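Pilot study result, target chain (308 residues):
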Amino acid sequence: MNTSKKNKFLVILAFFAIYVIWGSTYLLNKIAVTELPAFMLSGIRFFIAGCLIFLIARIWKLPLRISKKQFKNTAIAGFLFLTYGNGMAVFALNYVDSSFAALEISAQPLVVLLLMRFLQGKKIQPMSLMGVGLGIIGIYLLTSQKELITQEGAVLGMALLFSCMLSWGYGSLFVGKADLPPNYFVNTGYQMLTASFMLILTSLVTGESWSSPTTWSEPTLWSILLLIIFGSIIAFTSFNYLLRTVSPEKVATSTYVNPIIAVLLGWYFLNEVITAQTIIAAIVLLTGVYFINTKKKLTLFSRFISKK
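Predicted structure:
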């Protein structure tokens, strides 16, 4: 196999990872969190994944030494992305379905765009502005369903997921300017390890009940194993690999595929209900995300805005 064919094959595998594996993590977390406390679950997942990443980095002879500033920044990024952004999202799965969580979190690009506008003063382009409007409508359609908001804790779950998007969004802006380890694999390892300690501390402070893996059910054990190997190591590595190999807008297509995978898996394995309003909300929301991610110009709308 020549180099070009090998690279193409790796790109295909990497896209499969960020499409299917990331989409399946909602189901895996939902299965595990029905038996285990959320912060303990996430803490164990990222601790083991971080240790494995450092072991692999050691085998590959990658430099692990980083500066104090880089360590501090990886800890901040780890908190924003994994401790709060992921840990609280897993906690929210106690109150909402995995498919609902995936659809709400698909609005992440909308949150990032609004944070860039309010925190950095960046102007929103006409096409993205239309995407914001559609995204808000989609979120409203998704979260206003009587079948959902009448369920115990559902509103709390929705609010927690939104706060997770804010954390991920701010984290995305932070890492764009922060001094971080140059090797993305090592950078991810430090983020996971620092986040795991914060998650474990949170678990202890909140009084979560820990249990031995020997008492866990087989579905939970398999879920955690898959989350560690595929969700934490392979998918994140694939994501970083694609960012260096293909255009960012192609990588962003995972935003459209993950919710679909999550909804189908939740429906098939957990019998989660998919209402007609959910389908409509998903279409509107993902269309809005497309407009936010696309670099094409909306000529007529742009002219209309410029006259205002």
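One observation from the pilot: Residues 1-36+211-272 form one domain. A full batch analysis is planned for the follow-on phase.
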